[in-house]
Amino acid sequence: MRLTEAERAMLDGHYGPAKARAMDLLVRYGEALGAERLVKTKNVAGTVGSATPFMRAYAERGFDAVFSEFNLDSREVVETPPMEVGTCQLISGIDMRNWQHQGVSRELVETQERSERFFASRGVKMMATCTPYQVGNVPVRDEHCAWMESSAVVYCNAVLGARTNTEGRESTGAASLTGRIPYWGYHCPEMRRATDLVDVRVPVSNMLEWGLLGYHVGEVVQDEVPALAGVCGSAEPAWLKHFGAAASSSGGIEMYHIAGITPEAPDLETAFGGNKPRRVFDYNKNERRSAYENLNSSARDSAVNFVMLGCPHVSAEQLVQIAALLDGKRLNGNCALWVHAPRDIRDSAQSRAAADTIRRAGAIVMSDTCPAISRAMPPGTAVVATDSAKQAHYLPALTGVQTWFGSLDDCVEAATSGRWSGELR
Predict the structure, then answer these.
(1) What CATH number is given for 298-417 in this structure?
(2) Which CATH architecture best describes the domain 5-189?
(3) Whole-Å CA distances, 307 to 163, 358, 402
């Protein structure tokens, strides 16, 4: 790998041991990938801290030990310097206000609180969300980023037009101290071109439909780059958010093209860079039905214990929409409802009235986490309902619960009646 003089100086320890270990990690990582060089980045979205019982043992040795082991791949503990570039903390495992509902111990919460103070003092912005673009981290087109979290990555690439691969805790930790990341994959213009064409032959005009489409596209395309034909260029951000989350769950999609939406794809010809599609897939009524049945394949019992909304985390507009559906209603006594939002959205002035309405119905507005990350649900949960294709994909495998997938209206109806009556219309 070719290094600049500044990068070689970091590797040789002229800027301290932490940056030396960070650069060593990036060189090893880049060479394993076949990258010939590093690229500068000023935007890192990763994870630091120690909000798990396993990592708590490291936290007892100090948070320098946590960062050294888990972010720098260093057995030797080195002092954590201030972050070199803009760095934000993504979603974690604990809601710092509602931790008791999650069944988390006070000791673990205290560890997380100390962790946040430590890393905030080093310059990490504690956004604590899987949707950093909803709370201020909005990279510009062609900006090189180092982001974790699959649904955030695909939104970053395909909707915002910035450039990132799906990074890990180690590579983002190293990038935060060096301002560098290997130049490969979706940082390279030629790798961002569409490979496969999906011809969409049924209307997709709400979040449910975009979730089903994303789930099917991920299954058939896997980790290639699809371009969608037959959809309009006016999809709402929430729909695109759920499309990308579904596609990156059933497959490994990190980039897609929709003409008029993806910044570098004014038309399909440009999306393919003048190349012909390798494969062409249709999305018809049969594929739509199949995606719906696959997402509901774990569910048998109609009595619902728990409704989960907010994966990816809801926007302020979605919070208002949920509040409108719950206004004047109460949850069924046998069913809990958790709505997951970024802490900055939950606490914003425009969201407070909506959050209060949701709470009056008996629901909880949570932040910082989700059941797929925390593995936390109300005690006795056996049957879940969600409007998230991503959660419907992961929860049965991760927790063993039955999971119904449907529209937001279906989920609110289940929360108030205690029974699932959703269907594909």
Answers:
(1) 3.30.499.10
(2) 2-Layer Sandwich (3.30)
(3) 34, 13, 12
Tokens of 305: 């214990």
Nearest-angstrom CA–CA distance, 136 and 120: 17
Give the tens place of pLDDT for each residue, 248-284.
999 999 999 999 999 999 999 999 999 999 999 999 9
Residue 318: phi and psi, rounded to 5, are: -65, -35
Domain residue spans in the chain?
Answer: 5-189, 193-294, 298-417
Q: Distance of CA 149 to CAs 46, 54, 124, 373, 391, Å?
A: 8, 21, 17, 11, 14
Q: Which residue has the tokens 């019992």?
A: 301
The CA-based angle 132-412-321, given to 5 degrees, is 50
Decide: helix, strand or coil at residue 288.
helix
Q: Is the dihedral of CA 55, 60, 63, 69 positive or negative?
A: negative
Mean pLDDT of 188-197: 98
CA distance 257 to 261: 8
Q: What is the pTM of this model?
A: 0.96
